[in-house]
Amino acid sequence: MTVDELMAVQPVIPVITIEREGDAIPLATALSGAGLPVLEVTLRTPAALACIRKMSQVSGAIVGAGTVLSANDVMLAREAGATFIVTPGLSAATVAAAREAGIPILPGVATATELMAGLDLGLDRFKFFPAEQAGGRAMLDAFKGPFGQVKFCPTGGITLDLARDYLTRSNVACVGGGWLAPKKLIGAGKWDEIGALAKEAASLKRGG
Question: Coil, strand or helix: which one is 38?
């Protein structure tokens, strides 16, 4: 899949930090079954790569790796079965590694300077991160004039209500949401509750 195709699948991409390999399949099943098959698993825990392998076995799930910080992370994620890469910042070496591996990448940016560096690399689809801390919706509105061709996936500090507003903007293709799989619900195995959150997010409308 291309980055555009991934961003078009659903309005919200769950951003998942998972501690236990045993939670991977039920979590992916709950999210995918509720209408959110594209899943970003952050490489923030020792279990992350193993969880990507497990989640990739769930029918219909499209599993990628987030918090990818280096070319080596790209290789490890690809070997684990990740089908896309998300980074918190812009790294030419990481972009090159993803291209060499034949895997789509959504790099993070927070400033106009980073956006221009990304455009120089031939990119025009970015994660806007950390969205709320970096200026939020006002910043995205400001980007629209000089960077009209760019589409974003804002991530960071976004809630369900904020997501509704972000998604009204023409330069927002989707948003990233950590609220869909909170640590407390994963730890308690509350898959039905996570599924309900996912279903609500999957119903959000895009437009602008």
Answer: strand
**Which of 119, 183, 185 lies closest to 148, judged by CA?**
119
Cα–Cα distance measured from residue 79 to residue 134, given in angstroms and rounded to the nearest whole number: 33
Contact between 179 and 157 (Cβ < 8 Å)? no
Written as six digits, the tokens of 121 are: 């690399």
Taking the C-alpha atoms of residue 153 and residue 131, their distance in angstroms, rounded to an integer, is 9
State the pTM of this model. 0.96
All structural domains of the chain, each given as residue ranges with its CATH number in brackets, are 3-202 (3.20.20.70)
Catalytic residues: 40, 127
Kindly state the tokens that stand for 76. Answer: 């490890």
Listed in sequence order, the residues at least 6 apart from 72 whose beta carbon sits closer than 8 Å to its beta carbon are: none
Please state, as a whole number, how many other Cβ atoms lie within 10 Å of the Cβ of residue 22. Answer: 14
Q: Where are the alpha helices (DSSP H) in 56-188?
A: 71-80, 92-101, 112-120, 136-144, 160-166, 183-187
Rounded Cα distance between 138 and 83, Å, is: 32
CA atoms of 64 and 38, how far apart (whole Å): 8
Amino acid of residue 97: A
Let me know the angle formed at the C-alpha of 3 by 197 and 95, rounded to the nearest 5 degrees: 115
How far is CA 4 from each of CA 46, 90, 98, 127, 156, rounded to the nearest angstrom? 30, 18, 16, 12, 20
Place of tokens 């991160």: 129
pLDDT in tens, 163-204: 999 999 999 999 999 999 999 999 999 999 999 999 999 999
